Prior knowledge:
By secondary structure, the chain is of the alpha/beta class. 45% of the residues lie in helices and 15% in strands. The chain has ten helices and eight strands.
Amino acid sequence: MNNPHNIYLISDSTGETIDRIFTALKSQFSKFNYQIHQYSFTRTKNQIKEIINSARKQKNTIILYTLVDYTLTEYLIKNSEKNKIPCYGVLGDLISKFSKILKQKSLNIPSRQHKLNDEYYDRVEAIQFTMRHDDGKDIKDIEESDIIILGVSRTSKTPTSIYLANRGFKTSNIPLVNDMSIPEILKKNIKKICIVGLTTDPDRLIDLRKNRLRSLRENEKSNYTNLKKISDEVKEAKKAFKKYKWPVIDVTRKSVEETAASVIKIHEIYSNKK
Length: 274
């Protein structure tokens, strides 16, 4: 098998757009061996510099980007050219350019990425797995998860898990009440699964929980919406995350897409350590 192409996907946001574009692009080539290196929320020259330093150490490197900042774009292009790395914005004629790099004619089949293939079935399996393992429903095979998310109630565990599942990650999420609510198998984490804790600001959490109770037409005055109780929950959760050395994401000002992008980045780091 030929040496894989190292594809660097650089975005100044969640990276979803460029990921989808590359999915459509790669579907046009039947013999395309590649390794993805994805960088989301790239917004400084220092970040670009680190990416280029990584990219120039690889072989068969190609950079694709979606950057709004013109200064950053120029900096990226200049340094890519300096290191003789092909670098393209996603609005360019990518299929023809890839055809030249890969030295093969593109298939030119519209919407080929939507055909049923292994990736499609993997995504369906991930979604089914994630739905079964939502909110701590099933932990007997939790070690089969690609990612496990923990957090107190209303920290976007479920929507983040579903988003990740749609990206092909088998995701379990578990509500965190105290240390006793954490399955023993996760405390040991023999298989080195990517476990991520979600936290948020207590004041923000009160609003979310009150809205939840209103939608259910239940009494808003309870421990569930008590500021002191919520603050204690958040503190206990942070204490548990620190105790077991799990990375933490503060979702207070993050959208589900942004949270998921951060989780994926952590998962990449975990995968590289294995």
